[in-house]
């Protein structure tokens, strides 16, 4: 169930699969209303960055955050089948078969890092693979574009995380195939 709590007058761009989103969200157990997660108290209070629709968040959030615009707030109710299911998530204090409620505030919708356009834009030397330097430069440009102040360590953490998750063969480059989780044919 998706309830829109606030919709800005200008609602553009709308989020879609593969977009890079920046959001704060609080998670509650539907059974007793207790809070099990708050992004404002994690990660020094920085909003979360994640790619929509690729499983970086639970399936229910991937679905609930489609077609959202920057500044929009939603309250979503997620059944266990789209959250942590029968096993629950002990580390997150979520019992088995728990229905979850999230209050979400979306700050930014960026063209996702998985589009063909983005790959070609990052691949400055057109060798069909992305070096650490190319991705580092891309991150600097993205950060400058959104104008938010960030600690320099955030850049290094994101860069390291990108390579950890995408450089499957460990050769220090992200090939078009490794980069391309959506299996576009254009590359």
UniProtKB/TrEMBL annotation:
Q: What is its EC number?
A: 5.2.1.8
According to the record, the segments passing through the membrane are: none
Superkingdom of the organism of origin: Eukaryota
EF-hand domain location is: 110-145, 154-187
Asked whether the keyword Transmembrane helix is assigned, the reply is no
One term under GO cellular component = endoplasmic reticulum
Q: Which UniProt keywords apply?
A: Calcium, Endoplasmic reticulum, Glycoprotein, Isomerase, Metal-binding, Repeat, Rotamase, Signal
User: Does Calcium appear among the keywords?
Assistant: yes
Record domain PPIase FKBP-type: where: 18-110
Reactions performed catalytically: [protein]-peptidylproline (omega=180) = [protein]-peptidylproline (omega=0)
Q: Name one GO molecular function term.
A: calcium ion binding
Name used for this protein in its record = peptidylprolyl isomerase
């Amino acid at each position: 169930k998706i309830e829109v709590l606030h919709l800005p007058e200008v609602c553009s761009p709308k989020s879609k699969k593969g977009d890079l989103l920046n959001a704060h969200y609080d998670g509650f157990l539907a059974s007793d209303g207790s809070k099990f997660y708050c992004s404002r108290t994690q990660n020094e209070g920085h909003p979360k960055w994640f790619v929509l629709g690729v499983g970086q968040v639970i399936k229910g959030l991937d679905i609930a955050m489609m077609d959202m615009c920057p500044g929009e707030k939603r309250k979503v109710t997620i059944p266990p089948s789209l959250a942590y299911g029968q096993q629950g998530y002990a580390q997150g204090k979520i019992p088995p078969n728990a229905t979850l409620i999230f209050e979400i505030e979306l700050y930014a919708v960026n063209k996702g890092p998985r589009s063909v356009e983005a790959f070609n834009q990052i691949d400055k030397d057109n060798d069909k693979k992305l070096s650490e330097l190319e991705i580092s430069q891309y991150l600097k440009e993205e950060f400058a574009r959104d104008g938010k102040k960030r600690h320099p360590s955030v850049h290094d953490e994101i860069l390291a995380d990108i390579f950890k998750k995408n450089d499957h063969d460990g050769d220090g480059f992200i090939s078009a195939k490794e980069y391309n989780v959506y299996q576009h044919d254009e590359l």
